[in-house]
Amino acid sequence: MAKNEQLNNEEWRNATGKIDYCMTNDYMFRMVLQSNNNVLKELISSMMHVPLSDIKSVEIVNPIELGKHIDDKDFILDVKVMLNDNSIINLEMQVTNYSNWTNRSLCYLCRTFDNVQKGEDYNSAIPVTHIGFLDYDLFPDELEFYSTYMLQNVETGKIYNSKFRLSVLSLNQIKLATKEDKKWHIDEWARLFKATTWEELKMIAEKDKVYSEAANSIYVQNSDETIRAMCEARQEAIFHEQYVQKQIKELKERAKEDAISHKEQLAEKDAKLSEQQNLIEHLQAENKKLKEKLK
To answer: How far apart are CA 234 and CA 231, in angstroms?
Structure first.
């Protein structure tokens, strides 16, 4: 734990009200995990279902300088972790639904899996896992709390390659946590990430020392003006992204409504034309009968 976190170890217990920047802020998410290796280790243990006794080391292999400004084009806040020097885990917090998560996560996973050095045997590929912490429902028609996906035979279910795995944690579906999820305390981590007030965070912190450490880390990072500025920048970016997504959705809905309205108008015009055509045909038939009578 960082020295400043040790000095402030009890101050967070006196905090009340709204947490300015909680863990759903991807910059705060990154800062807390990067500044507290024990929290990172226990989170990995829960998400990967690996006993703490089996974890020898967890190391972030893509660290960023705390508080350092990052250009928008390089603003990638996923946390890449090396577990026991023999597997890679990507952790990513995402609160805005761009409707591209399945493709995005696969791209991340494939890039990470391409870790065989030139001249090495392909069997030396390191196992990789991408874990997405989503503040929205990935598949609204098939709700789950924590789900894992692997390549497998669609007929027999046989796993094609166990080194390639995708997991998704839906922060909105804690109520759907299974016995297995609760056994590994994944529901508690989700509650910690979703906590927006210090009162909520204190209730979670009472359950385990590691949550207390996480709460302290959140407090310390929220107390750093440089970190706060970066979190604020991310928050504004998120609000803007959500606004753009909302506008796009409204435009699509409006276009769909206009298309339906236009289709209905065309159908109405077609019906009128058909009615007029029937009338013309009727009059022509009557005219023909009159002509025959006159003859």
So the answer is: 5
